[in-house]
């Protein structure tokens, strides 16, 4: 890929994925140090545990070096693991949209990342290819290919879907995010049946004899434990989808042995979880609508109050459908709970009757219960304008510093390119206090530093007086920060 001379010196950033968890910043730098315009690298880590997230970024001063790094390092080995190197996409919407992303399954075990890349590269510019593997590196039989354009992805799907690659017929289709996948309808064709409620003495021969009357059975298996005993469920796979549907309709609920069989279409774990989640959400929404305006939030409840006592207190206002005192893992009351009435009128009566009343020597706070999202919206409406007035007009601030990248002896190069500002005259013991600079302009000249070494109370360090001026420290225009000495303790006059 040729790069115009006008953009040859433009900075470029690459994403490096599938890293070994023990790789450090310096080791990642050493892996890419052959490229002369390399400026910085970073291995991304968990903010709390500091463990590697197994991906990072490599930054160059030259796009030509970045392009060459992709060609040389993509699908190469680093610490015994095959790494993926591609252009960094900072826009999260572009990454999550799935544009140009292709899903491939039924892959042969011998196909790796490089093999998948070679298979698809003739249909367009491939940005990334990945075969999903187990912990031991063995392929799971499916993967993903990211094209630069949606047109290339569609072309690859048209040409490769249903084709045979290394004696296996592969499936190639558009990648669909898990949350966007639709549930199978009633007209879905299937051949595999799930059967449960089997007696322990039911054998595969008996099951074969019973279910083969509906059509040709390709395979049949009863799930068994480590001792060879039946787990009470089995799978029957038919050759014809129509035979499978007939068997399901005829055998579901029919007595076989001492129990009534449950027969349904076999489902993958992800599909079952999606269906259960969908059913749970539907019931949850129905319950919310049913109890809207009738559910009360009660707080400041004494730790010794039981649900029975709470029910007895509020029962004079109407019919109570449920009472719940919230408790922690040890069973100790959290000091709040919920009382649900049969209708909103009874709930409003309870609020007006018992709000602020003393119960076990504590005044109760009672209000109509709200969902978390509704509470947040209400708080923004109530306190948003006040907070905006306190914050004052917004001021554009240039961030004074860089993220924790690894910069190995490239300071002079970055200073020349304008990527890094050197603090003026800052010695050891000075730090940025993250104070937003005032809106008035400053001259871009060196500011003398006159630290205040007077010792005062530690808790007063960093406070501002009524006119908004720091009593100690210095403002650095290039970094848009105030700096103050670490060993000084500053005391300010009250307004």
What is the strand and helix layout of this fold?
Blueprint lengths: L11 E6 L7 H8 L5 E8 L6 E9 L2 H11 L3 E2 L2 E2 L1 E4 L4 H5 L4 E5 L7 H8 L5 E8 L5 E9 L2 H11 L3 E2 L2 E2 L1 E4 L17 E5 L7 H8 L5 E8 L5 E9 L2 H11 L3 E2 L2 E2 L1 E4 L3 H23 L3 E5 L7 H8 L5 E8 L5 E9 L2 H11 L3 E2 L2 E2 L1 E4 L3 H20 L19 H7 L12 E3 L41 E3 L4 E5 L10
Antiparallel strand pairs: 1-3, 1-6, 2-3, 4-5, 7-9, 7-12, 8-9, 10-11, 13-15, 13-18, 14-15, 16-17, 19-21, 19-24, 20-21, 22-23, 25-27, 26-27
Protein name: RRM domain-containing protein
Pfam families: RRM_1 (PF00076)
Main location: cytoplasm
Summarize the structure in words.
The structure is a single chain. The radius of gyration is 33 Å and the shape is flat. The chain is 26% helix and 27% strand. The protein folds into four domains: 5-180, 2-Layer Sandwich (Alpha-Beta Plaits); 192-269, RRM (RNA recognition motif) domain (Alpha-Beta Plaits, 2-Layer Sandwich); 294-368, RRM (RNA recognition motif) domain (Alpha-Beta Plaits), CATH 3.30.70.330; 424-495, no CATH class. The protein is built from twelve helices and 27 strands. Mean pLDDT is 77; it is low at 1-8, 394-403, 414-472, 479-483 and 486-495. It has 495 residues and is of the alpha+beta class. A hairpin with a 2-residue loop joins strand 4 and strand 5 (81-82). The protein has helices at residues 25-32, 63-73, 92-96, 113-120, 150-160, 204-211, 241-251, 269-291, 307-314, 344-354, 372-391, 411-417, and strands at residues 12-17, 38-45, 52-60, 77-78, 81-82, 84-87, 101-105, 126-133, 139-147, 164-165, 168-169, 171-174, 192-196, 217-224, 230-238, 255-256, 259-260, 262-265, 295-299, 320-327, 333-341, 358-359, 362-363, 365-368, 430-432, 474-476, 481-485.
């Amino acid at each position: 890929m040729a790069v115009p001379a006008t953009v040859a010196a433009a900075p470029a950033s690459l994403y490096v994925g599938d890293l070994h968890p023990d790789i450090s910043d310096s080791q990642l730098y050493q892996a890419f140090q052959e490229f002369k315009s390399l400026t910085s690298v970073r291995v991304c880590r968990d903010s709390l545990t500091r463990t590697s997230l197994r991906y990072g970024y490599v930054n160059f001063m030259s796009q030509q070096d970045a392009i060459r790094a992709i060609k040389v390092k993509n699908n190469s080995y680093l610490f015994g693991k095959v790494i993926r190197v591609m252009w960094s996409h900072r826009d999260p919407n572009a990454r999550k949209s799935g544009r140009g992303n292709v899903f491939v399954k039924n892959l042969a075990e011998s196909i790796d990342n490089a093999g998948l890349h070679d298979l698809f590269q003739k249909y367009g510019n491939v940005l990334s290819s990945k075969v999903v593997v187990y912990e031991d590196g063995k392929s799971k039989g499916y993967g993903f290919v990211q094209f630069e354009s949606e047109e290339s992805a569609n072309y690859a799907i048209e040409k490769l879907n249903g084709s045979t690659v290394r004696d296996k017929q592969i499936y190639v289709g558009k990648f669909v995010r898990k949350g966007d996948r639709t549930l199978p309808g009633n007209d879905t064709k299937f051949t595999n049946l799930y059967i449960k409620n089997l007696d322990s003495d039911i054998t595969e021969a008996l099951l074969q004899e019973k279910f083969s009357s509906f059509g040709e059975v390709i395979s049949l298996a009863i799930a068994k434990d480590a001792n060879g005993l039946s787990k009470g469920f089995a799978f029957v796979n038919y050759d014809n989808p129509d035979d499978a549907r007939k068997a399901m309709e005829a055998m579901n609920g029919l007595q076989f042995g001492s129990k009534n069989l449950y027969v349904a279409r076999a489902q993958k774990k992800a599909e079952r979880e999606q269906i259960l989640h969908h059913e749970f959400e539907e019931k949850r929404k129905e319950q919310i609508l049913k109890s809207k305006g009738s559910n009360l939030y009660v707080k400041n409840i004494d730790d010794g109050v039981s649900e029975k006592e709470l029910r007895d207190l509020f029962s004079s206002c109407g019919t109570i459908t449920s009472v719940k005192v919230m408790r922690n893992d040890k069973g100790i009351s959290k000091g709040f709970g919920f009382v649900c009435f049969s209708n909103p009128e009874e709930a409003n009566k309870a609020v007006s009757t018992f709000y602020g009343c003393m119960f076990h020597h504590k005044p109760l706070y009672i209000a109509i219960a709200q969902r978390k999202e509704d509470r947040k919206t209400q708080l923004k409406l109530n306190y948003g304008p006040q907070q905006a007035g306190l914050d004052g007009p917004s001021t554009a601030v240039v961030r004074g510093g860089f993220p924790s990248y690894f910069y190995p002896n490239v300071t002079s190069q970055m200073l020349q390119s304008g990527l890094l500002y050197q603090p003026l005259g800052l010695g050891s013991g000075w730090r940025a206090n993250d104070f937003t600079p005032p809106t008035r302009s400053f001259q871009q000249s060196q500011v003398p530093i006159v630290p205040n070494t007077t010792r005062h109370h530690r808790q007063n360090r960093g406070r501002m007086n009524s006119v908004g001026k720091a009593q100690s420290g210095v403002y650095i225009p290039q970094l848009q920060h105030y700096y103050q000495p670490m060993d000084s303790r500053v005391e300010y006059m009250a307004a």
